[in-house]
């Protein structure tokens, strides 16, 4: 075997097991596991005890974790929801988010806190779709008007933010015009691939073979999904786009061609097991290891960026919820705003790209991630309080409080 040590990966894997166990023993402590994983990464990383370094095994698994995180986010994305006036309101809301984000970015740029106002605007414009879905399910409001408005807005924000980040801020180089052409080619290839898969799925013979192999050691459906994920990531990288776009669109394609799950009800559960069971926690823990917390704590002016970025996140994603003011009660509009402003995975991804490109300092990236952590801790709790009120929707007699701890997917 090559001369590679696995001690760092061992510590990371131990944290991945310990974090949810600790939360399991304290069910009243409603903290998403991802928050504890990032905090644990800070503790064992250079900003803490210095026990873990990002060596080759950890780096590879973390990269796969990021790809699987975006893949599962794409799996949550359902284009069938993007219909009717709610979609147009969501698009308007996202345009407002970018506009407000640019104004805030220019302000922070004048203070020399960020080097690219547009990157900050894009980083603040996404919503954690996986967490939003979990919170709405727990409150029994997934199918309500507020729930569908939130999911539509989060879907639009996730997709648009990933496309913008890949188009304007790519670590692969090239011009925006060139990347726009590459994006068009990539989109065409994605559509063709989706059509080929959908056409192949009509074959009864192929369907019989898949059904026979899906629950054996072959796990053929899982392997096919992983093949599609790796293929789209490799293709995106080859034509000069960010790999996160390929991973996300791979999930979207699987979501579209796999609408009928009656013959394989455990397929998506297996995919989540691969992602959340191993790969994704490693990504979040290593994100904590990379976080420059010592630089953030070195001076009060740097630490002051955290609450300001948290306020910026609330303004950028919370204010656009006002577009639903004519269709939802005021209390639900406020809840939608809080849920829209809940973001962490995309912030982690965007800040890492920003640091690589030199568009953002490590201290600013740390402050943004800390603001994202606080948004996950504070905003869903406030939204749950608003949505759980029986006065919010007289027709929703079955609404109830959160029975379990929400988890973060995108």
Under the CATH scheme, which architecture would be assigned?
Up-down Bundle
How much is the average pLDDT? Answer: 86
Q: CATH topology, which one?
A: Na+/H+ antiporter like fold
Structural class: mainly alpha
Can you walk me through this structure?
This protein has one domain: Up-down Bundle (Na+/H+ antiporter like fold), CATH 1.20.1530. The C terminus is likely disordered. Helix 4 crosses helix 5, helix 5 packs antiparallel against helix 17 and helix 8 runs parallel beside helix 11. It has 410 residues and is mainly alpha-helical. It contains 18 helices and no strands.
Which keywords apply here?
mainly alpha; 0% strand; Na+/H+ antiporter like fold; disordered C terminus; globular; 410 residues
Short description:
This protein is mostly helical. Helix content is 70%, strand content 0%.
Spell out the blueprint of helices and strands.
Elements (H helix, E strand, L loop, with lengths): L6 H19 L7 H12 L11 H21 L8 H26 L6 H8 L4 H10 L6 H24 L7 H25 L3 H10 L6 H19 L4 H15 L9 H24 L2 H5 L2 H4 L1 H14 L11 H11 L4 H13 L4 H26 L23
């Amino acid at each position: 075997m090559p001369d590679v040590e696995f001690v760092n990966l061992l510590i990371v894997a131990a944290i991945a097991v310990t974090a949810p166990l600790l939360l399991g023993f304290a069910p009243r402590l409603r903290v998403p596991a991802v928050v504890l994983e990032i905090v644990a990464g800070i503790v064992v990383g250079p900003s803490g005890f210095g026990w873990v370094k990002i060596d080759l095994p950890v780096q590879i698994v973390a990269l796969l974790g990021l790809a699987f995180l975006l893949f599962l986010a794409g799996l949550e994305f359902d284009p069938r929801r993007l219909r009717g006036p709610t979609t147009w309101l969501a698009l308007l809301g996202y345009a407002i988010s970018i506009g407000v984000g640019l104004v805030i970015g220019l302000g922070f740029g004048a203070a020399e806190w960020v080097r690219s106002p547009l990157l900050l605007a894009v980083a603040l414009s996404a919503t954690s779709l996986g967490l939003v879905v979990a919170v709405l399910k727990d409150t029994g409001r997934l199918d309500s008007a507020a729930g569908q408005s939130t999911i539509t807005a989060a879907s639009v924000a996730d997709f648009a933010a990933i496309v913008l980040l890949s188009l304007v801020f790519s670590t692969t180089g090239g011009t925006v015009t060139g990347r726009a052409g590459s994006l068009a080619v990539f989109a065409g290839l994605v559509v063709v691939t989706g059509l080929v898969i959908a056409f192949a799925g009509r074959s009864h013979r192929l369907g019989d073979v898949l059904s026979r192999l899906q629950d054996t050691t072959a796990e053929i459906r899982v392997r096919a999904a992983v093949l599609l994920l790796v293929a789209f990531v490799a293709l995106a990288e080859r034509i000069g786009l960010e790999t996160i776009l390929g991973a996300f669109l791979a999930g979207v394609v699987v979501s579209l061609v796999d609408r009928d799950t009656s013959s394989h009800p455990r397929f998506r559960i297996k995919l989540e097991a691969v992602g959340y069971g191993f790969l994704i926690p490693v990504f979040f823990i290593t994100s904590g290891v990379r976080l420059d917390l010592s630089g953030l704590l070195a001076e009060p002016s740097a630490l002051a960026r955290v609450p300001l970025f948290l306020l910026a996140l609330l303004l950028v994603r919370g204010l656009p919820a006002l577009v639903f003011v004519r269709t939802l009660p005021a209390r639900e509009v406020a809840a939608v705003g809080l849920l829209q402003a809940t973001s962490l995975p995309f912030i982690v991804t965007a800040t890492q790209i920003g640091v690589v490109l030199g568009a953002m300092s490590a201290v600013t990236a740390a402050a943004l991630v800390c603001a994202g952590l606080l948004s996950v801790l504070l905003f869903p709790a406030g939204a749950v309080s608003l949505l759980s009120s029986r006065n919010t929707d007289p027709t929703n007699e079955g609404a109830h409080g959160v029975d379990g701890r929400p988890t973060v997917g995108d």
